[in-house]
Amino acid sequence: MNDVMLLGESTINRFPVLGLPVHLHHNYHHWLLNRLYKGLGTHVITLNAEMAMQADRDRHLADVIHGAELVIPDGAGIVLYLRLKGKQTQRCPGIELAESFLQKIGQQNCADLVFFYGGKPGVAQRAADRFQQKFPNLAIASYHGYLSASEEEQLKDTLKDLQPRVIFVGLGVPRQELWIAQNRHLCPNSIWIGVGGSFDIWAGVKKRAPAWFCDNHLEWLYRLYQEPWRWRRMLALPHFAFKAFLS
Which of 42, 70, 129, 151 is the most buried (most CB within 10 A)? Predict the structure, then answer.
């Protein structure tokens, strides 16, 4: 059954995918900008089949997904499921949403601080530098994701003091989603987005799949080629498909 959520002055449709909510909207970055300018705290989750299967096993992760203000259809499997249920929606890759959102912020003459947290030492800073070269109006602070317990507490103090308006967390799934849910109270009016390995791509450490793979919903295959150790995690894809056709 469709649900409609009233968020600020706009409505957004929500449809269940194997019991998890997915929000359907024609312009996600515009919706996020509206939230940003109103100071409405938002947790954005980019849902794919792998995360859906993790949530099927992990009640805590499922609860976090249910509590997020925006869950976008990131993976091809999610889009296929929605289409099987009569919802003709388009895939919204999280990396593209994040890039578009950053560009929109960078094109504005505003003093909103953006924060990058995650990745290996130096990667988030390189990604930040690249965006700041393209958009001089952007102010981006960063921390890498390999912190000791004391360093992570220092990070939390920094977030609390700086109150960045937009916070990208690249710790991988499901760690980043759980970390955001646990710590978003530090910056309650901010937009929090889990971006996985996007910092690596923005920094030039890794390459995103060529357009043909992306256009044909095969980005996962290119990623498996780059990182063959992920093959066990990819077993979630046929499992998701099996559950999708039975539901």
Answer: 70
